[in-house]
Amino acid sequence: MFSFKNLLLRKTKPTVKQPAPKETKSFHFAADLNQMNTQFQDTFRMFPDFVSRELVNEVTFGVFYLGNLVDAELLIEEILNRLLHHEDMSSPEKLVNLLPIGQLLLDDNWYRMQQYILQGWTYIHINGYPCGILVNTTKRRERALTRPENESQILGPQIAFTENMETNVALIHQYLPNPDLCEIAMNVGENTQTSIRIIYLRNRADLEMVTHIYNSIDALHLEALLDATILAQWLEDNPSSAFPQMITTERVDRAIFPLLEGKVVITVSGSPQVIICPNTFFDFFKSIEDYYFRWSTGLFFRGLRIMGIAISLFATATYVAALTYHYEIIPQALLVPLAQSRARVPFPPLVEALMLEMIIQLLSEAGARLPSKVGQTMGIVGGIVIGQAAVQAGFTSNILIIIVALSALSSFITPVFAMANAIRIIRFPIILSAGIMGGLGIVVSVALLILHLLRQSSLGQPYFYPPYTIENKNNRDGLIRVPYKLASKRSVFANTGENTPKGTKDIDE
């Protein structure tokens, strides 16, 4: 499907040659080692850790690298010692076969060579040849594998991705040792040259969708790329929408299930998050733990989650609309305590609700920014103290405090944090509409919200795709968690089966 020219002579898996940006200087590779050394010294004159060494065996070698980026033990034992003690190394091609390093690059592009040295590679030049080889001697700086911190759960694998992309890809291969698992390597960012891997199952994913994702990333002209969440925003079809169209996760198992459904996973070097795409609106309300529980338990929790979203969006708005325009919908038993609670409140319901909602958001944001131990205490103590003081001072009613607290609590029941933030934002326009037009304002807000979702797409795929249709392939995972025996084996984004080899079994079979 893809015709990629591969220059990286790897003993593991080939990667894609990155496009060479325009060179800033007219330097070129020279056969004379002294001339090459002069060019290197001129190029890296502002790097105190730049090292140039000259070794003499049968021929003269020049070794160039940045000392603070390379693995010194690997460089000495596997490269320098071999250059000094092995014979018949008179050409770059023979060096490629001799050195036992996993990644070797035989290249003659000066700008690309600079980029690799800045990433920790070592350049070896043989005197008399117009080009040399690049060896990956990068010193890995990564933290150990730990439990997920932001997506904790009781059941399932307790392992999270790290900032090292090679480790993340290895984890995916470990949990999904399938020969149909394909990778496409790319580099994004003129200054950072961030490595990206597009991972998919060849017999599950729609190849046209994979091509669309590759072309979308290839069309980006970024100066720098530091994290997967930034790439996800660049790939969104409608970045002005408050609703996220890409799911980012730190859990390995949450990335495996979408691959089996025919979706695509994108890993970014330096980011502990991976991108899952494309997605529908309902994918953001599904937890991977739903599949580890029995189907009845998973169905209950998924329904509870959907109900919590409705409470978060409409509870405060309903309170404002009822007290402003629709007293008749309030039960008679609640009229007296409600009137007593609001007797000292000098503000109309709309101002009262917006003020309390803003206080809740400030407490939530402050708790998230403070250190974990202090932040939890700040959220609990601050909420109790401010809430009690606000009621005693007559700024708000007891009932509204309960409703706003319930709405804030329900917004964080969403498994994807980006969607939880979107719900927190959408709640304010709905409250304003309820305060201006009452119940009609809530209905208009819901209608506009649905129209907005219907207009969205995720990498060219329908964003508000219905959870169930008459097509069997789309019944893979809707809003209802069904037993595995009754579930279909394909996602709406998977291929139709023409590219699936005969005899291939699905995960549930």
UniProtKB/TrEMBL annotation:
Keywords: Membrane, Transmembrane, Transmembrane helix. It comes from the Bacteria. Signal peptide: none annotated. InterPro entries: Spore_Ger (IPR004995), UPF0353/GerABKA_families (IPR050768). The chain crosses the membrane at residues 304-325, 375-393, 399-418, 430-454. The keyword Transmembrane applies. Belongs to the GerABKA family. PANTHER family: LEUCINE ZIPPER PROTEIN 4 (PTHR22550:SF5), SPORE GERMINATION PROTEIN (PTHR22550). This is Spore germination protein.
